[in-house]
From TrEMBL:
It holds the Pfam family GntR. The keyword Ion transport does not apply. CDD domains: WHTH_GntR. Residues 7-74 form the HTH gntR-type domain. PROSITE patterns: HTH_GNTR. The keyword Transcription regulation applies. This is GntR family transcriptional regulator. One of its GO terms (molecular function) is DNA binding. InterPro entries: GntR_C, TF_FadR/GntR_C, Tscrpt_reg_HTH_GntR, WH-like_DNA-bd_sf, WH_DNA-bd_sf. It comes from Pseudomonas versuta.
């Protein structure tokens, strides 16, 4: 595998390993050995070590003394804690868009994402669906103009993707519910209805949490 700019080598390695964890190719509790990754990807051990630190910061692995790096367990407590936090960040971003959009064209990126989500649902493409779910938040970043919020969301993105991927992989039919909630969210943003935005996004976060917890019981 060949890695190129613009991302740093460590970031590219971290992204590669994160994708394997998110898709379940690297299982909870599985050890990630620096030497094996170094040889498999033909990169330096220092870059791999830095990549593992990035993954630890993003809650996908734990690095323990004398035990090395292991893929973290996805527990019910972690899922509930993550969903609670992400719910409030969704609402912050949704409110920012509602307050600051000026002309209908400002909402164009969200409508484009909606069309891509529909296409992914029709193809039953879980990976694309999950990725575009997060692209909704990224499209909201310019409206929020909050670098700390953006950094926090980006660091939690892999952990949330892992949870969502598990839920959708177990119950693909539920993708339609996400589409319905997203349509309701767009209506609320267009109307600048902040209470409705909170209500829709709270339901979205709770439904997401329920799906992941249900999937955990049969994973």
């Amino acid at each position: 595998m060949t890695f190129k700019a613009p991302d740093s080598l460590a970031e590219q390695i971290a992204h590669h390993l994160a994708e394997r964890i998110i898709r379940g190719e690297l299982k909870p509790g599985e050890r990630i050995q620096e030497q094996k990754v170094t040889l498999a990807l033909n990169v330096s051990r220092g870059s791999v070590r830095e990549a593992l630190l990035i993954l630890e910061r993003r809650h996908l692995i734990a690095i323990l003394p004398r035990r090395g790096a292991h893929v973290t367990e996805l527990t019910a407590h972690k899922v509930q804690s993550l969903c609670t936090l992400m719910s409030e960040m969704y609402i912050l971003l949704g409110n920012a868009v509602a307050r600051r959009w000026a002309v209908p064209a400002d909402l164009g990126p969200f409508l484009q994402i909606q069309q891509r989500l529909i296409a992914s649902y029709e193809r039953q493409d879980i990976s694309a669906f999950v990725e575009d779910s997060f692209n909704v938040m990224r499209a909201a970043y310019p409206f929020a103009d909050n670098p700390y919020l953006q950094e926090t969301v980006e660091n939690l993105h892999p952990a949330m993707s892992r949870a969502y991927y598990l839920a959708l992989d177990q119950r693909k039919a539920e993708m339609s519910e996400y589409l319905e909630l997203f349509a309701q969210l767009l209506e609320a943003v267009l109307a600048r209805d902040l209470p409705q935005i909170r209500e829709v996004l709270s339901r979205y976060a709770q439904r997401s949490c329920d799906l992941v917890l249900s999937a955990l019981t049969v994973a």
